[in-house]
Write a structure and sequence with these properties.
The protein has about 160 residues and is α+β, with helices and mostly antiparallel strands. It is built from three helices and eight strands, in the order E-H-E-E-E-E-H-E-E-H-E. Strands 1, 2, 3, 4, 5, 6, 7 and 8 form an eight-stranded antiparallel β-sheet that branches. The longest helix has 11 residues. The chain is globular, with a radius of gyration of 16 Å. It starts with 6 loop residues before the first strand and ends in an 8-residue tail after the last strand.
Amino acid sequence: MLQGEKVEYFMADYIQFNDTLLAFIQAERVARLATSDAEGHAHVVPVCYAFDGERFYSPLDEKPKRVGEEQLRRVRNIEARREAMLLIDRYDDDWSKLGYVQVWCGAALLQPGKAGHDVALRLLRERYAQYRSMSLESHALIVLTPRRVVAWGPALTPTR
């Protein structure tokens, strides 16, 4: 039987994420970014991310893409709705190690040269060695500001 309590956080709690939840967010290496278009059609892609304690950042990097950055579905969806959901999850055959964090966010694009772009790049490069050799300075970043968080997992149940 799985143990764990589903815990929901709202905006007032964001700056008080417990250490266990923050450790989970930092330990996982990939998340799924869900966006939807103006009509509500969902789109989900795996993303790399960095978290500064207040916002998540995900780059539009140099990996090959079929269309230009501004034509990516996630970019068009963010511009249309200004919202997204980030799912950070862990699977293990030992189900006592399962967990997830769902983060409903306000979403925006942070263009090169704008305040905070360089700080976000530093965080991403510290987290992912692959980004250290990419010219991310010329690419926009996705910025996700948490509005609501739901966390579940045996190791994510906070003590109060």
